[in-house]
Amino acid sequence: MDTIEKSRASVAKGLLSRLPSRLHHNAFVVKDHEINRRFFEDLLGIPLVATWCEKNFSTDLQREVEFCHTFFGMGDGGALAFFQFADPEMYELTQAEKPARDGLIVEFTQDPDDVAEIDAIRRADAHSELARWLAGDRRPNNDLRGRHI
For residue 98, what are the domain limits? Predict the structure, then answer.
């Protein structure tokens, strides 16, 4: 049984008494916090809400590494978070061998007024739509894409 199957079995047994209330943050590693801050805060207007300066023991490097962890606040209380390591070797350890062709992808959204109705529709057919797609039926089901709110 692989890790995912074990996780599903644990969830099915009720290991989680309730779902997580929200995603607190999604973290990315950057080379330069100031360039990153200028983009998110100065250009986009997403505020820097916390900066944590820390050090931890790295089992990969077998020594302490210093890093800075910044958080940019989102409207739902979540955050985009970024790490910058003082040690260039630690930065290299966090990079994918073959980065995605479009680089770092971040998508922002603003919910439409009828978000509850849309959510109810997608929750009701989430499993059947996934099964349909996996069976080879690739018809789009998103007639909302491109509509103007």
Answer: 22-109
Q: Which residue has the tokens 């996996």?
A: 134
Beta bridge partners of 51: 70
Q: Which of 30, 37, 38 is nearest to 88 (CA)?
A: 30
Residue 48 lies in a domain: yes
Q: Write the pLDDT tens digit of every residue in 109-138.
A: 778 888 899 889 988 999 999 999 899 999
Half-sphere exposure of 65 (CA within 13 A, CB side): 19
Range from 32-36, 44-48, 95-99 carrying the lowest mean pLDDT: 95-99
Residue 6 is assigned to a structural domain of this protein: no
- Is 70 within the bounds of a domain? yes
Angle CA(99)–CA(66)–CA(87) in degrees, nearest 5? 50
Say which residues have a Cβ less than 8 Å from residue 36's Cβ, sequence separation at least 6.
30, 70, 82, 84
